[in-house]
Design goal:
This protein is an alpha/beta fold and 298 residues long. The protein contains nine helices and nine strands. The chain has one domain: Rossmann fold, CATH 3.40.50.1820.
């Protein structure tokens, strides 16, 4: 089901996805004509799907940009957020979120044209889910994954994570300098901040333990972006080299995004980052198409 939404970019609609015992909500925009591919956007901890449709400035919306370039863009409220918050009041582990996400995307693919396939663009905690779900993707149906704001070794204290609206996490870690964001970003972003479910928060400390096993099962191309002012994660050359060495992905790229903080998709650098991510998607499409055998002429 889809319905129009207020306080969103033109053409963006609310959508619900049937994942069996759980119903996920999200935001959807489709291009004029058949989509080249479908971008599935996964938000971070203590956020929501609207993170990818920033309203402080037209240049920040991934949904608007993606549709203008011919892609369907589906921003999902992860399990424990949005519609499913009432069904999963304690949240869900990454393994459980992965199973729910796959079921929800099965429902989406059965109802919508996905073009060349699914490409996952994820931020922060959503990056952990993207990697976990890619590792669980037995059919390799994903074209690739693009992750910002997620590493494998924390540089910040875990007690600085968001808990609820009254305790949204360490401000400077999540955002960085005010000048990195358009005016009114924080006024427009108030409704995007959501409570981080308890079970999700409890599993945060286990990421360093979980990552090696997850990384060893990822079989699709991966691109990682670290903001210039990223302070949640260690992202020095040695740490990044260790991270990429653990990924079994056929191709791994690492990029640095200047003039931005952790919440890249809400900052002035959002459009530049999103264009780079969609450029990587085009490379993944070309790679997938070139690997398909061409039928012999008769």
């Amino acid at each position: 089901m889809t319905t129009p939404t207020l306080d969103a970019s033109p053409g963006v609609r609310h959508i619900t996805l049937d994942a069996g015992s759980v119903t996920l909500s999200g935001l959807l925009i489709e291009p004029d004509g058949p989509p080249r591919a479908t971008v599935v956007a996964l938000h971070g901890g203590g956020m929501s799907a609207g993170y990818f449709d920033g309203q402080a400035h037209p240049s920040t919306s991934l949904l608007a940009l993606g549709a203008s370039l011919g892609y369907t863009v589906l921003a999902v409220d992860r399990p424990g957020y949005g519609h499913s918050a009432a069904q999963l009041p304690e949240g869900a582990t990454l393994a459980e979120q992965s199973a729910v996400l796959h079921a929800a995307l099965d429902d989406f693919a059965a109802r919508y044209d996905t073009g060349a396939g699914l490409f996952v663009l994820a931020h922060s905690y959503g990056g952990k889910l993207a990697l976990t779900a890619a590792a669980d993707d037995a059919d390799d149906r994903w074209l690739g994954i693009d992750i910002s704001g997620c590493g494998h070794r924390y540089a910040a204290r875990l007690d600085q994570l968001p808990t609820d609206r009254r305790h949204p996490g360490h401000w400077t870690l999540n955002w960085g300098k005010l000048s990195l964001y358009p005016p009114n970003t924080f006024r427009f972003s108030t409704h995007l901040v959501k409570p981080m479910p308890p079970r999700e928060r409890q599993e945060v400390a286990r990421w360093a333990e979980l990552f090696p096993g997850v990384a060893a099962r990822v079989r699709v191309p991966v691109r990682l972006t670290f903001a210039e002012h990223e302070t949640w994660w260690h992202h020095d050359e040695e740490t990044v080299a260790d991270l990429t060495a653990r990924l079994a992905a056929p191709r791994v790229l690492v990029d640095r995004q200047p003039d931005t903080g952790h919440n890249i998709s809400l900052g002035w650098a959002a459009r530049a980052y999103h264009l780079r991510a969609l450029g990587f998607l085009e490379e993944c499409i070309a790679q997938r198409e070139s690997a398909v055998p061409v039928p012999a002429r008769v």
